[in-house]
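Writing this down once: the sequence line spells out the residues, with the fold written below as integer tokens. This is how one looks:
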Amino acid sequence: MKNSLCGIAGFSLAPDHALAPAAVARLLLAGIAERGRDATGYAHRAPGGAITVHKDSRPLVDLIGSVSMPSTTTEAIVHVREFTKGIPGINDNNHPIRWGRVVGVHNGHLTNDDELFAVHGQPRSTPQITVDSEAIMMLTDVLGSVSAALEQVQGSAAVAVLQDDRPGTLQLARRSRRPIVIGRAHGVVLFASTRQPLELVADAARLSLGFEEVAEGTSIELLHGEEVRRERFLVEGWLGKKIVDYPHVAEKDRLVRSALDGLRRAS
């Protein structure tokens, strides 16, 4: 089985933000380009709007130019995928994943997803989907908490979720092994699997960010660019494999340069 090299990123913004959301999303994606080449996806929501999901079984280099969202967007999550379970040719397996009221992205690998669907008596969202990550979205919906969801899974997980019934809110959580880094400014919270994408956005948009690596067993709730809740949850059982090397991909430098130029022009 392949190691999971997925990458996640996104943002929570105040409604009166002055950023160009699509340009920020493209730069965040470019900054995590080396972490997955099997599929690309993103989801976003503007005030008063529904969560919109876009994803495809193609690498970022083929899709980054088509990333778009309203200028009023206040929450977005993005994902590049290197799959472990659930072939990317079936687009249901790609991220963001919707189950019920929850849309989320996951970096990591779980071993008990099928068991959890059986224990909770819940169906998969479609007949075709087999990806392990869906268990996190199902549990978050059924249990009402991403923290409770990550206490039940076995394996590595860093996640970000949006919920239909919680407008303006974005939740981050880190179970084990996979990192989440946050960058904060007034009315702006950015996150990514590594610090580099956040630094790229800060430079292009002239933001002064304070950085934090989220601790394992921590969930954070964001509302319109501010942290409103933080809690610890229990992490036990199998934690997943450690990942230490992310190979450079040839197209990343070009993607970053192009996305940087786009955000600078928009800022």
Notes: Residues 252-266 form the longest helix (15 residues). The helical segments are 21-31, 60-63, 113-119, 134-143, 146-152, 196-205, 252-266. The mean pLDDT is 96.
